[in-house]
Amino acid sequence: MEGAIEPAPGPQAQRIAVFLRLRPVARPSGRIAASPQEGWVQFDVPKDAAQGLINNSRETYRFPFDGLLPPDAGQGEVFDRVALPVLRAALDGYNGTVFAFGQTGSGKTFTITGGTERYADRGLIPRAISALFAEAAARPGHTYAVHISYLEIYNESGFDLLEPGREVRALEDLPRVNIQEDDSGAMHLRNLSMHRCDTEEQALNMLFLGDTNRVVAETPLNQASSRSHCVFTLHIEARRAGADALVRRSKLHFVDLAGSERVGKSGLAAHTQLKEAKYINLSLHFLEQVIISLQEGRTHVPYRNSLLTMVLRDSLGGNTRTVMVAAVAPEAQHIEESISTCRFAQRVAMISNKVEVNEELDLEVVIRQLKRENALLRQELQLLRNGGASSSGDSAGTAEGSAGLEQRMQLTEAEQHVLRRQVQAFVEDPSPDSLLGVEPSMLFIRAAFDLLKGMARGTAPQGPTAKGPAPAGAAAVVGAATEAELRSLRQLVQRQEQQIKVLSDALLADQHKAFEYFCATSPAHDAVAEHKAVLRARYEEARTLGSQVSAAKQRISDLKAAMERRRLGRSMAALLRQQQGGSEEDEAEGQREAAEEERAKQQIEQEKAAYRTAYEQLKAVKADIDGVQAALERSRARLQADFQAWPLLTGNAAADRDIIRFYEARAALLKGMRA
Ligand SMILES: Nc1ncnc2c1ncn2[C@@H]1O[C@H](COP(=O)(O)OP(=O)(O)OP(=O)(O)O)[C@@H](O)[C@H]1O
């Protein structure tokens, strides 16, 4: 699998591959024959005896498959034939789906998850996990990031099986997963957690957690394992060293469907009229509708009728390499169901998907690379401009400036020391983006080359590095750069800077789009909006109360001032009367003034009461504001946390691409938020 990340081929049509797996049974029916070599199974059933005809004639049904897995096929063989090619393609960036279909007890769970008694009974999922990490390790020069999600669908409701630390006794104890449609019509699964797994062990532990939750959530009443559908997903992200701006992302689903029993049959005679028979499980009914529409090439495919078909949208008729395992228990009493299973498989086998590598540019990495290139070009430009000696002021670190450097014969000890550390750090940094940012001067450059040569030969110079002057030829060669060369280099730098700006803007726009999109669908955002609205109303209230308080205060001081003025007036008048040897104050006048004084005092008291009331209210509103503010902070934190844990998963390629873009942008946005 060398060179896995070569230029991605365009979309290719690919039919869904269909395998038949026969379960080992104690008493296989003599009416079932199979050829593993030729890949077919055949059922011989008596003709309808109900017509009153006495005959021994039989009806024969033969179904071809892409592969037949006989009862003695081991789990390893099943994995190698069914899932390994899909897994390898997923590592190359192709989506993949393996789903098992069949009646209850036919061996679906045994195939997908496996038996627990013997190690050899491990099913497709644990084997895929082991093979994934082994294959990834065997692809040098590539890095992979793996996330896992595990969804159970029961009665049209989705449940997240991977919620660590949660006590689960019933399905309802698991977090609900919803599907939502955005403006573009794309479907998104919300609240499905994704868990990064860096090792096989971590991934197997996740699977164990999900399977345990699946078992303990089952009650005798809901018989969840037979009636629910489980979708285990490996989300794979691949980058190639040296080309890490290109990222390939794929999803690999393993789907264990509910038992496919039907109702509405009327005995074996109904084989030829199985059309009326209905699935007990409603989602399977809708799954069949989707498959019929695709097989008949109808323009409208009713994916939206159920959660299951929405999740499997891309696996059926979309951008996914899909494989179906039809599970059959070859016993006489199950012939009818077995024929139904094979008929369903024949329809599925006619569906063609359009598969394509999911590859895209990581804008952040592109920008980083452009900036690095740009820095190198700038250095080159500076060198050429100065004929090998930098005269620019931005070359820090030397007292006399770079121009003076070329006059010197060798570096100072301090300069040598710094340079040695820079070269050391450069050599030790495994990143292809690391830069050796030495002074743009021949003296430094030669010294750096000497150090590198010494390191490569294992004889790194201990003493002074650049001995002797820079050869005149070197400077002369660099100095010979023509005006035209300088100009074109300058233009290149400018063009790149422009490119960086355009890309940065695009990234920024994406980040905002991502957050906006997330907010529009997040309940945490509703809480933030609600708190903000309450806060706005409270602030308004506080403002009104605040102006009431200050108005009351103003009126009190006005009243007090008026009272003081009156008192002063009265004292002045009394003094005047005294000086003029006049009479005492008129009694009526005295009473009037006393009454006025009393009225003013009452008015002041009233205003004080109004002031106190408004002030108390203001205090209460302020306390309220503090509370709402704290709640707002909490819901903001929750929004950010949710944004961080925003899951990827839809059944739709276009939607996925969008989500993945948003997901990347989200990381950068969060970084910005925290900064
Ligand atoms: N190939 C096999 N080899 C050995 N045992 C098997 C095989 N296939 C199935 N079994 C056993 O048969 C029983 C029923 O299988 P399983 O639980 O996988 O059926 P199922 O189709 O998933 O049923 P359900 O729809 O109820 O989930 C289990 O005990 C399982 O271990």
TrEMBL record:
Coiled-coil intervals: 360-387, 479-506
GO biological process, one term: microtubule-based movement
Residues where ATP binds: 102-109
Key word Iron present: no
Ranges for region Disordered: 576-603
InterPro entries named in the record: KIF6/9_C, Kinesin-like_fam, Kinesin_motor_CS, Kinesin_motor_dom, Kinesin_motor_dom_sf, P-loop_NTPase
Domain Kinesin motor: 15-351
Biased composition (Basic and acidic residues): 589-603
GO MF, one example: ATP binding
Keywords from the named record: ATP-binding, Coiled coil, Microtubule, Motor protein, Nucleotide-binding
GO cellular component, one term: microtubule
UniProt keyword annotation of Metal-binding present: no
PANTHER family in the cross-refs: CENTROMERE PROTEIN E, KINESIN MOTOR DOMAIN-CONTAINING PROTEIN
Record-stated family: Belongs to the TRAFAC class myosin-kinesin ATPase superfamily. Kinesin family.
Name of the protein in question: Kinesin-like protein
Lineage of origin: Eukaryota, Viridiplantae, Chlorophyta, core chlorophytes, Trebouxiophyceae
